[in-house]
Design brief:
Elements (H helix, E strand, L loop, with lengths): L45 E6 L2 E14 L9 H10 L6 E13 L2 E5 L16 H7 L9 E3 L5 H4 L5 H4 L7 E5 H6 L14 H16 L3 E4 L2 E5 L2 E5 L8 E7 L2 E5 L22 H18 L2 E3 L9 E6 L2 E6 L5
Parallel strand pairs: 4-5, 5-6, 6-7, 11-12
Antiparallel strand pairs: 1-2, 2-3, 3-4, 8-9, 9-10, 10-11, 13-14
């Protein structure tokens, strides 16, 4: 499959700066609320839930069309084709979901990742986050913190578009692991298997992100409590500084796994993703997170699971099973 991926450009040519699934009445701004006025879409793009006393909103940034091989580079081609056929996907490409979290804990409003942004013409169905946050009644000026699970372009690109950065507060705190920042100073792609344009675009996007937000970045070593009940923890694997986010309140927990796993991971946790910089460590991280989720019964969300990506993990022999949560209308 040929991937059409263009380098990011600015529009003006410049670079500027109990069950956990009950309905939420969360308000992220005194004058706004979920379901506020905004462009209406025929397909749902946000899903609200509560974890104890913490409000969580899953927002879709859209989808990325990617080769099926990218999600299973070490898999037998016959087994790969069979899995995608059984899932009614493929055979050569599929739509890779992009999910972002908005979390409200106390007086803090936290954005977990920022999507792709709209500056990549090769991905016209991604980069929807700004308009979907607006449609949800979320004012970007109210966002106090951003957690970056890792610095791939589909997690930081949204911060580089005018619709986002022109509305973010100057004292915004951006939390990312120190190992991740260090890695992107001289990134190593030797273990990855990516379509040819991607590594250069990833480098450029990471460099632009650090150039524009260096003064806002707050690094941590292993883990950091961003707000009460909201903890970011470095796992490594997908990238050396990749992190997950735990939301904990009232005896409940939700894990946002970032890119630690993908739809194939439940049945085939050993299948490697072409975007993994440390494939063997990514496998170990993936299995550990799935085992923890299966043992605890916690809510589980990940960037690239089909929206709204809210469910639980169950053991299934030597592998795992994804149990999608029932929508709570």
């Amino acid at each position: 499959m040929t991937m059409q991926l263009n380098y990011p450009t600015q529009k003006d040519g410049t670079h500027q700066k109990g069950n956990g699934q009950q309905e939420s009445n969360m308000s992220l701004h005194n004058s706004s609320h979920f379901g506020g006025s905004g462009a209406e879409e025929l397909v749902p793009s946000r899903y609200a839930l509560r974890v104890g006393e913490i409000d969580v909103l899953v927002v879709s940034d859209g989808v990325l069309p990617l080769p099926t091989e990218t999600m299973s580079i070490n898999a037998d081609p016959t087994a790969r084709a069979a899995w995608f056929k059984d899932m009614f996907l493929g055979p050569d490409a599929f739509d890779w979901a992009l999910n972002v979290l908005v979390v409200r804990s106390g007086e803090q409003t936290i954005l977990v990742d920022a999507g792709l942004g709209g500056q990549f013409p090769g991905f016209p169905r991604a980069g929807q986050l700004p308009k979907r946050l607006k449609a949800a009644g979320i004012d970007l000026e109210s966002v106090t913190d951003v957690v970056i699970t890792h610095m791939h372009m589909d997690h930081i690109g949204g911060l580089l578009v005018d619709e986002m950065k022109s509305r973010l507060r100057p004292d915004l705190r951006i939390h990312v692991s120190a190992a991740e920042v260090e890695f992107w100073e001289s990134p190593d792609f030797s273990r990855t298997t990516m379509p040819s344009p991607v590594p250069d675009v990833l480098r450029e996007t990471a460099n632009q992100f650090m150039s524009e937000y260096r003064s806002n970045v707050r690094t941590f070593d292993d883990e950091y409590e961003v707000a009460q009940g909201v903890v970011v923890k470095r796992t490594g694997g997908h990238t050396p500084g990749h992190s997950v986010v735990y939301v904990m309140s009232g005896g409940e927990r939700l894990t946002f796994a970032g890119d630690a796993l993908f739809p194939v991971a439940f049945e085939h946790p050993d299948w490697q993703n072409g975007f993994e910089h440390e494939p063997e460590e990514a496998f170990r991280v993936r299995v550990r997170l799935l085992q923890e989720a299966a043992a605890s019964g916690e809510l589980f969300v990940a960037t690239h699971l089909p929206f709204p990506s809210v469910g639980r993990v169950a053991l299934d022999g030597d592998a795992f099973r994804w149990v999608a949560g029932f929508w709570n209308y």
